[in-house]
Predict the structure.
Amino acid sequence: MPRSRGGRGGDVGFRVLLTVFGVAVIVLVAAIACVLIGAAMPSIRRFGPAFLWTSRWDPVHNVFGALPFVFGTVASSTLALLIAVPISLGVAVYLVEIAPAQMSVALSFVIELLAAIPSVILGLWGIFVLAPWVRAAVEPALAAVLGWLPLFSGPQYGIGLLAAGIILAIMIIPIVSSVSRDVLRAVPPEQREAMYALGATRWEVISRAVVPYGRVGIIGAVILGLGRALGETIAVTMVIGNRPQIPTSLFQPAYTIAAVLANEFSEATSDLYLSALIEMALVLFAVSLIVNALARWLVARVTSHTRVVR
Amino acid sequence: MIAPGSRAGARRRLTDRVMGWVCLAAILVAIAPLASLLGYVVVQGAPALNWAFFTHLPAPVGEPGGGMANAILGTLTLIGLASGVGVPVGILGGLFLAEAGDGRLGWWIRFTADVLNGLPSIVVGVFVYALVVVPMHRFSALAGGLALGVMMIPLVVRTTEEMVRLVPSSLREASLALGIRWWITSLRIVLRTATAGVITGIMLAVARIGGETAPLLFTAFNNQFWQAGLDQPISSLTVQLFTYSIAPYDDWHRQAWAAALVLMAITLLLNIAARAAGRQRFTVGR
């Protein structure tokens, strides 16, 4: 090959250099796993798997169970998905199927700006705008209509699981809607044309041809949103109330894994305490690894297929 | 299919119309928090913003006035340190993916970068804590910069790859045909052509890490005074904003809104500028 003339050494060296930096990304993730496992070992040895389903969190007596935090993380993320998924789907459908092209570009841009808002600013807004609104308007309304359910009963603080779910929903709407938008855009036009040819209305095309075709990718988008919600820290810490209990109502304060790390990590006094906190970070790492891998795989299955077609 | 004008047809058309409105409503619901947030940050933040905010140290509790000059400087320092880690690793990693990453190894690196990008930032903080803060026995600017740098890597890797892939292969071929070596072609022709796009990616990454709080809480920690060295705790706008907003003092709340306004302005400007530059590049590239 002509390019090798007089430059073999430089080319080989450069390729090795690039490969080293490429592989560095894999090494980094492996290092994170090793360091976390190593530092969490004392806690893993002491409490075993029961760490995840015991609920006594008592730093004074060196007894640590993560259940309230695991529960709070799962509950707030589930709530966030329940709020965010229908809205995100509506957004994606509107952007791809209904809005005129230029408006779609502008609206996409605005929604993506939402993703750029720093978490701490959303938290500040959450404390001073959202939580008072939830206390004054949302919780009384929910209690009036659904108050007979234990889920919507009890004192109304504003700060609590419900506020955390809403903040998380706001934070994941951009990612769920933009990935769903890409998935819907990847649906081949023939799918639509066939339905229109049969005399279907636009909504029938959307609900029976387009969305079902992109189903796998949309599930991927939702899982991606779940991954974000599970690990969100600061904004949730600011509005969830931070009480290590298992809430029975959406109005009650709760706690998440990420929030307890943010609050207690820099003041953990004993080695075991610190190790227990690091074990929770390890749990978060493992879960987000699995969730992200699954989501990427699902989304890639839909969008890469169409890239070949295009 | 049902004939036009029939009752079933009318119902179908009504459903179509209604669902169109429902989707529009979803957009409005998604944008409403953004509008409210921008409004509040401007209305609450602007009156609290003054010259002292940019030039003074924080005042002790109970004393009015004071500013966040140390936090602004701290954030800039942290961004500098983070870029020192994230930019070289990110660019060379991205160049690898674009130029030599079509094989199995490339697939795994791409996959790992995406996973790293989705990793909760607080986990990165815990990692750097165990790796740097524990052996050093103190919180430091270096630890904070490293945590943010790790977060920059996947973002810079992926944008660099995309931008380098946009460079027309004819450029590469022309250079190689002139007998210019591959590594020089890669760095001086290909990467240089993609510079605008790569910088766009770096700007987006900086905007993202500049707004991060969680990984700084126990790496850079905080500091109410001017920074004393890179091996010492350092203040940042986000941690200061976090501390001030959960404190019970009205005066601190006002400062928190001012900090939010400054941070938001920086973040949005970087985002808009990066996207504008990116779009321009893309259309020119076509």
User: Anything to note?
Assistant: Chain A has a mean pLDDT of 89. Chain A has eleven helices and two strands.
